[in-house]
Amino acid sequence: MLNYNKKLPDGASDWVVTEENFQTLALGKCEAVMALGNGYMGLRSAAEESYVGEKRNLFVNGTFNRFDEFEVSELPNAADVTGLDIRVDGKRFTLEQGEITEYSRSLNLRDAELVRSFIWTNAEGKKLEFTFRRFVSLDRLHLIGMKLDIKSLSGSVKVSIASGIDAQVSNSGSQHFHEGEKRIYDKKYLELIQTTTESKVDFVIGAAHRLKLDGQEIENSPAMEIDRRKVAVAYSVDLQEGQSLSFEKVATVHTSRDLAYAQDYSLPAMREHALGDLKSVYAAGYDALFQDHASAWAKVWNEYGITIESKNSFDLLALRFALYHMVVMTPAHDRRMGIGAKGLSGEGYKGHSFWDTEIFILPFYIYSNPKTARSLLEYRYLGLEGARRKAKENGYAGAMYPWEAAWPSDGEVTPVWGAVDIVTGEQTKIWSGFIEQHITSDIVYAVWHYYRATGDEDFMERYGYEMIFDTAIFWASRLEWDEAEGRYEINEVVGPDEYKEHVDNNAFTNYMAHFNIELAMQYYSKLETERPELFKHYDELLNLKEARKVWESKLDLIYLPQPNENRIIPQDDTYLQKEIIDLTPYKDQEKVGSIFNDYNLDQVGNMQISKQADIMMLFFLLENKFAPEVKLANYEYYEEKTLHDSSLSLSTHSILASDFGDKELAYHLFKRAAEIDLGPKIHSSDAGIHAASLGGIWECVVMGFAGVRMLDGQLHLAPKLPDHWEKLSFPLHWQGKPLEISITPQQISITNTASEPVQLFVNGELQVVQDTAIF
Amino acid sequence: MLNYNKKLPDGASDWVVTEENFQTLALGKCEAVMALGNGYMGLRSAAEESYVGEKRNLFVNGTFNRFDEFEVSELPNAADVTGLDIRVDGKRFTLEQGEITEYSRSLNLRDAELVRSFIWTNAEGKKLEFTFRRFVSLDRLHLIGMKLDIKSLSGSVKVSIASGIDAQVSNSGSQHFHEGEKRIYDKKYLELIQTTTESKVDFVIGAAHRLKLDGQEIENSPAMEIDRRKVAVAYSVDLQEGQSLSFEKVATVHTSRDLAYAQDYSLPAMREHALGDLKSVYAAGYDALFQDHASAWAKVWNEYGITIESKNSFDLLALRFALYHMVVMTPAHDRRMGIGAKGLSGEGYKGHSFWDTEIFILPFYIYSNPKTARSLLEYRYLGLEGARRKAKENGYAGAMYPWEAAWPSDGEVTPVWGAVDIVTGEQTKIWSGFIEQHITSDIVYAVWHYYRATGDEDFMERYGYEMIFDTAIFWASRLEWDEAEGRYEINEVVGPDEYKEHVDNNAFTNYMAHFNIELAMQYYSKLETERPELFKHYDELLNLKEARKVWESKLDLIYLPQPNENRIIPQDDTYLQKEIIDLTPYKDQEKVGSIFNDYNLDQVGNMQISKQADIMMLFFLLENKFAPEVKLANYEYYEEKTLHDSSLSLSTHSILASDFGDKELAYHLFKRAAEIDLGPKIHSSDAGIHAASLGGIWECVVMGFAGVRMLDGQLHLAPKLPDHWEKLSFPLHWQGKPLEISITPQQISITNTASEPVQLFVNGELQVVQDTAIF
């Protein structure tokens, strides 16, 4: 459906994602995969004209609202500004009728412009050339720009366009906004002011239009419409053969959650500012605004200048696609906000942040843009409030992070009910919010990873230590003493493998909890010795000395499942005793989730079937705690029982395959991971792109193929490039120093532009690099 | 667009409303005009497959909910059961693609079945015959029946149908329901339980499907889906050439507002009952259920057996169409509910009741089905609670009825903001809820009309007198003394003509208030003399004796505008002084509301422009208070200033034209009134059919062409049939006696089947009829 081998202008094949044929069944795919955004907001790329099955979504990061007491907070779908009701000689324009030639819809990753063009002949034989352009400005975070050019290729034709701000939208039916106030100033500037129902976030959305006939601006007094949740204008223009109509629309979005209003807010002031902003972007016009936006993207690509020279241009395209989406989804401008599991590209997962951020996306930022990595970790620091509440509500001490997080102070927001149970016909209960507890140590792992890779002491002193200590306090209170075994256990959990609910001693969970407490003890000693004042501060805040005693008494008694006689580490207490069935029918890439056509979750839970990497994830995160032969044995054992039904699974397996030296498998899994969104599966991205998988693509390349790791605080590089790759180069930040790494099958080149030398292990050998070194 | 002259089977042309070509711009028209219902619920006739611009509506009478504190109560749009996602060889079926022949969509008024059929050839050349059938049972009020037959006319084809209950709907964005609980029993019985957010009305909606291949029931285990606000199943069937698939769906709707639960309600009990009901209708099957429904309609047409013999079959079709819609919209089963201004056929006017019921629809019931007329008036009796509150809130005494009414106890529910003001770009304020006050006397007029036509003393003793007395108390407190003129005035109102806001002494309002007080005084004397106990009861309740003193002191001092030197009664104090402009450009039937393209409401308010009948309405209601020459002079003066921008206008003008003996004009206006919904205007019914206009069609025929009136408690008959009518006959209830009236150009035949004689004026002469009399 999406095509990457299209004959494109030189150099475009690894920059442009293109849809070559109009297909109504592919609406969701393109809407999500080609979604636009700038971290402040995300705009799903629905076509201007409407189609059955479309999802128009505009999300503004951090504007969570809760529809009612039975639902959890989610990112509300804000009013749509992209829809146009286009009439040609009075009939509604739609690609479902008439004849289409030269169709193309493409997202150019380089300048983040969405372009759709085609020649359309209607039932009456009138021929028109359409070109739609759209961007969400990276230069002005509140701006959406749109442009439509229509040229009459045959005879005269009347074109009417109704356009405005349409808030008759919802989140699959849940309405998060009061109707609000609607206004048209000077028959030109449209304004809609809406407030979310529970969180009381004010939105001010503006829109204005400019029409040009053959490049000449035309005055055209529009018909005006104000309806329920809607304000619009309608223009009509007669086009002679050969004439072109250019229809520009600029829209602005401001909300009371904007950082600008964090301290001092009034709606009248925002409203005035927003109207001024609208007038200013309207005065600038599409072309100038787009230029500024394109320049901002040029800076991004310059900064994240990762490139692959490969016989297959898809490899680089997929990598750029991943980086593109990470940029558009990440609220780098505001530490009060996290990254949603579907970014800002769909309603899936309600805009909530999972461990996806810390484990799959954060590494990219740690090594490419430490400032943004820090902002994302500070979001978790702000989340301590909710984490402490969650711990308390569950009868524990310290900070227990929510499995799903929205606004930092919200605490747990995982919904309780999911899809149908095919046996009972009831909705399945989602247990993650209650018992998928490893998220707490995942966040601590990320803090540690960030700190060791950047050396950012300031972050640790302000935020990091407190997070590590208070989570360790949680884990210590969470441990359960087993008198018979004489050990501490963690029972009744869900591990990363979500097909196993209510298990005892999930290896990943236990090891990571152990890691968390051990880390706290290590930093306890460090602060006590080196930073007595800071130590005193945290001791007073968290009663550290008492906590330390508990940690010490429990740490070595935590049960860490060991390899059995076949070197297999049991995923949990009962996994290895469960029935094994042939999973071949369900393992096909096309069959994600198909196991549930035949079994319900209870039944799947009683078989050796894993949704995703679990023990493998443990090997990836704590790699030097396990012997290579143990890793390999477990890889072989568990992989065949893993359905990869989670998009978090493939990249981890690819990295481990790289570690094991199986280049072919590693590349195969990388490609499959890339195809989660970019592949042919038509509905895979309907609810939004897969943020963790996109972060995983970068991980496959940099941590897998280039073998970048932080081990015991040291940087490691151990490339295993896929055979058809000629070169991989990328920037890498290490301890505040920007490095440039370039890898070919023959050599590794490292450039250090900082004035101080950098130490790192290259293929296991310690090296010191000043300026440029070749290995 | 709709065709009534289509070659139909004998006798069908005056029973069937047909759409002969599929047109996406006509979606709203057919959805509303062909809407189904049974008074309990109303179902808009959207196609099974979805189209852009469609409105799927299912309303259950009386289930009002208020979205938030900024909106008023409205009838919530309940979950959709009519949508089917049909795939042919994997591609979504839509009439926007492929080739269509033999298309027809028709509503048969006789058995209230909606049938849509066509032959469709897809892009791949596969030819299929589709027939969709649907009814909302008049026999089982909680039942919706649907049936789809698909026959393969060429080769083998895979047909998939996804169907269920979809609550991802809203009222133009306002969501009235909590998400609710979803369940599938035995892979067959789908259930959705939802509760309205504010009024806490529980809905239980069920659905079940049956598939037959060439008449043989097939077991087909469906795929099941539970999503947000949605529960569905999907079936797939392979059809060989010549094979037919029959897909039946039955759906049931129950709510906690059902009369059955008025005293004793629990959700588990309703849920159990609803599931039992679903299983029972499923067991019965479409055909048997439809037969029972058709029989119920046969009874209706037998009871309301009005017929016209005319050279134009449209006349009878339009009349039947009016009766059909009155039946489907009227909650005859439950006196706690009123009739919405759009019936149950659209979101327009939010399901609220206006004076439309009492003035335009009630006469039909008074003379055709007095029991239902009484139920509708009892709804207003129950509304006294809200009316008293409204009076109090406005600083008045007694009962001041709300301009718009929802649940009886709600009081005023008129929204405050309307369409755009083309001058200021802001929303226009709607004043009716504050100052359109004639509704109170309109209701009293209807009580009086009902009482004098039926002689229902029981109604009066329980409800009627109290309504009349307490509204007279309101009016007495509402009157304003003008010292200079030495009279009581009613200032700052909107009369029936809503283009004149904030006027003083609207003639209609003043005369009707006078009528209201005068009537109260009359019944005061009657009760005091004839029914001392009842008198005592009301005196204690309402302090009648004091009230009577006030009435007496004010009645004759109420200012009743008199004809001027040109016999013109001023519509209000300033109307006749305003500018007169040429309204020709706006008077065309196609141009309803077009005045607002050029002027805003303030500007229209300052010219002699009327939206609708105002003085004419007064002549119609209180006809023997005005001399014929005054009526005619005013008719001629005001008609040319009246745009008929309200659907309440034409029928009144038609009746007056009949009174004046202008048969041609009377028929012309009748036809225009009928064309409000049935005519070619493509968007006129988008928000729903025009309930008052439909009642007005019956009024044109029976009160206009047959000249039926109640004057001073006496029945009058004075026919003026249109020239091309050969016969008009209809049933007429008078004083509890069922009469049959039959009128030809030559004679009038009256049959009285009661044992007692009936007195009536025929063409002005008093007659006594026993058995049958010919005049």
Automatic annotation (TrEMBL), chains A, B:
It holds the Pfam family Glyco_hydro_65N. GO terms for molecular function: carbohydrate binding; glycosyltransferase activity; hydrolase activity, hydrolyzing O-glycosyl compounds. Residues 18-257 form the Glycoside hydrolase family 65 N-terminal domain. Keywords: Glycosyltransferase, Hydrolase, Transferase. One of its GO terms (biological process) is carbohydrate metabolic process. SUPFAM superfamilies: Galactose mutarotase-like (SSF74650), Six-hairpin glycosidases (SSF48208). Coiled coil: none annotated. The keyword Ribosomal protein does not apply. InterPro entries: 6-hairpin_glycosidase_sf, 6hp_glycosidase-like_sf, Gal_mutarotase_sf_dom, GH65_N, Glyco_hydro_65_C, Glyco_hydro_65_M, Glyco_hydro_65_N, Malt_Pase/Glycosyl_Hdrlase. This is Glycoside hydrolase family 65 protein. It comes from Paenibacillus lutimineralis. The lineage of its organism: Bacteria, Bacillati, Bacillota, Bacilli, Bacillales.
